[in-house]
Design brief:
single chain, alpha+beta, Alpha-Beta Plaits, globular
Length: about 100
């Protein structure tokens, strides 16, 4: 397994319950693919550096995890089609 870091931004115009269910959805994708979450940080609402799709703020989430490349492909696919996500980035952690 390789170490990865995932950061994604969730829209701010949705209810807190939807934010929590979105976070749990991505945690489940990692753990169901035999991945292991080593650190999970819901950083809260922050200002975006620039406007994205008319949004100026977003809920930032940072996840460090170990997983196989197949899990990354599925995670990326689901992140792209989830309407609540404004932006996401998955990088291989070299540390």
């Amino acid at each position: 397994m390789r170490k990865y870091e995932l950061m994604y931004v969730i829209r701010t115009d949705i209810e807190p319950e939807v934010v929590q269910s979105t976070v749990e959805k991505f945690q489940n994708i990692i753990t169901n693919g035999n991945g292991e979450i080593t650190k999970h940080d819901l950083m809260g609402k922050r200002r975006l550096a620039y406007e994205i799709n008319k949004f100026r703020d977003g809920h930032y989430v940072l996840v460090h995890f170990d997983a196989e490349p197949e899990v990354i492909a599925e995670l990326d696919r689901v992140l792209k089609i989830t309407d609540e996500i404004i932006r996401h980035l998955i990088v291989k952690d070299v540390a």
